[in-house]
Design a protein that fits this description.
heterodimer, A: alpha+beta, 17 strands, elongated, B: alpha+beta, 2 helices
Chain lengths: ~240, ~260
């Protein structure tokens, strides 16, 4: 009988973690390029256990990298990716990979994101000449940047053979974890004038949230029943 | 649980900010030259509940670990500089900038501000001013007996003065451009000011080196699209609601835990 308590406790902890992940997904329902935390890890933790076959636990993605929907904004430096590629941001801590589609020009003329991190192009950052205005910038589907026919640069777009090995970094970015490295993307296209929305589906998160709340309650109830049964037993023994 | 409440609270706060910005955009539907503002959200730092490679059960390694985020934050408000619609007003002193660039205005304290609002007037001393009465930096003076003001595409201002058959040039309206106009700070009165994020302005003649041209008798309307703003408003409302629901669900779970003991 006693073996039940640790199992229920672990289950409730897993449910709490699951709830926190859902809350984070919901908070980021409007964050451009956000990739939601998937439920599969939690389902293993709640329903699985040590008797789950080893080969089914090896590739559980914690992040759902599915494509977010695109919204047309008409802004020249809104660049939404369609496909499995990522943009590369050059930061002081190394390259970071992102799908966050809002870019702008820094005071020194380089293409950066809203936190000032430089967008990587082939051979360095993309510099906009001072006599070219943002409205004249054209980004083709392959990521090449031109203005009035003159070439300005080429945006670097990479992909990974195993996206499940990407680790979350600061502010809508990912780092390459051990076991995977970036390669030039082949089938990803860049859509200028579009924003990639968050891939959070509110319906799905709410459904999961309801399930979590009910499971939590069910676990608590069984714990309470177990508790009262132990009490009864003790009372019966002590007379 | 309480950490999750904080995440949901950031979600609600973010949507409230979004609604503020939408309200601002809609309030400026009729302001000439105004540009719509958009909030750029980023997710907040992740706490590693389990490192990648950690043991989940005996002999089984977690391939990616468990990272749970802390919510969302507004990282920036982005002013979107797409061209607004051109409205033919037929008024001689109305001018619209077609393409990039700003008209420079001198403030009473000597500072320069920048605007796309081309609704110009002449004050009692004959200076060309904005509708709020601030003098244009190009310092154009219009004689009291001048008729038929003309503003060319390149900004040259001319007028007919009685006594001569040919129009006389009164000066030229020059434009200023920034490498990052989204970095300009809003100062109210439909004017923007330079910041370290916007970079220094390059001034020049309209129609040259990337500057737009001036269209007389037109006004540039706002680039706010009502449909887009209304869609964003509905999304913000639902997202706000759903974050509140998450807090409610968590609260019930907490209550269940608390009543376990009693």
């Amino acid at each position: 009988m006693d073996g039940m308590r640790p199992a229920v406790g672990a289950s409730m902890t897993a449910l709490t973690d699951y709830y926190r992940a859902i809350s984070n997904n919901l908070a980021n329902a409007d964050t451009a390029g956000y990739k939601r935390t998937a439920e599969t890890v939690f389902e293993r933790a709640i329903y699985g256990g040590a008797d789950t076959p080893a080969n089914t636990i090896s590739d559980i993605p914690a992040v759902d990298h599915s494509q977010g929907s695109v919204l047309q904004t008409g802004r020249p430096l809104d660049l939404a990716l369609a496909g499995e590629g990522f943009f590369v941001l050059d930061t002081t801590e190394g390259p970071r990979y992102t799908r966050h589609s809002t870019f702008m020009v820094s005071p020194t003329g380089q293409v950066v994101d809203s936190l000032g991190r430089t967008l990587a192009g082939a051979g360095g950052p993309i510099s906009i000449p001072s006599d070219v205005d943002i409205s004249q910038i054209h980004v083709a589907k392959d990521g090449s940047v031109t203005a009035d026919g003159k070439s300005i640069g080429q945006i670097e777009i990479v992909e990974f053979d195993d996206v499940s090995k990407l680790v979350r970094g600061d502010a809508t970015t990912f780092l390459a974890g051990p076991g995977t490295s970036p390669t030039p993307a082949e089938k990803t296209i860049v859509n200028q004038g579009f924003q990639e929305r968050s891939n959070v589906s509110i319906m799905r998160e709410l459904t999961n949230l309801t399930a979590v709340a009910r499971l939590y309650e069910a676990n608590a109830r069984s714990l309470r029943t177990h508790n009262s049964k132990v009490e009864d037993l003790l009372r019966a023994v002590s007379g | 649980m309480l950490r999750a409440f904080a995440s949901s609270a950031t979600g609600m706060s973010a949507q409230a900010t979004q609604l503020d910005v939408i309200a601002h955009n809609l309030a400026h539907i009729n302001t000439p030259g105004s540009k719509r503002v958009r909030v750029d959200f980023q997710d907040l730092m992740y706490v590693q509940a389990q490192k990648p490679g950690a043991e989940v059960a005996s002999g089984l390694e977690s391939p990616t670990g468990l990272e749970i985020g802390s919510g969302v934050r507004p990282a920036a408000t982005v002013r979107v500089f797409t061209q607004g619609e051109m409205e033919n007003t037929g008024r001689d002193m109305d001018v619209a900038i077609e393409g990039p660039g700003f008209i420079r205005v001198t403030m009473p304290d000597g500072e320069t501000r920048y605007t796309r609002d081309g609704s110009l007037h002449v004050d009692s001393s004959g200076n060309m001013v904005t509708s709020a009465g601030y003098v244009l930096a190009d310092g154009i003076s219009v004689p009291t007996n001048a008729t038929g003001i003309g503003i060319g595409k390149d900004g040259t201002v001319s007028a007919f003065v009685p006594g001569s058959s040919a129009p006389s040039s009164l000066g030229q309206i020059t434009l200023a451009r920034f490498s990052n106009p989204s970095g300009l700070a809003g100062e109210g009165g439909n004017m923007l000011s330079e910041t370290s994020a916007s970079g220094s302005p390059t001034t020049g003649t309209a129609g040259t080196s990337g500057m737009g041209t001036l269209q007389q008798r037109f006004l540039e309307r706002t680039n706010v699209q009502m449909v887009l703003e209304l869609v964003r408003m509905i999304t913000a409302q639902r997202a706000y609601e759903v974050n509140a629901k998450a807090i409610k669900a968590g609260d019930e779970m907490l209550r269940t835990t608390v009543t376990l003991v009693s």
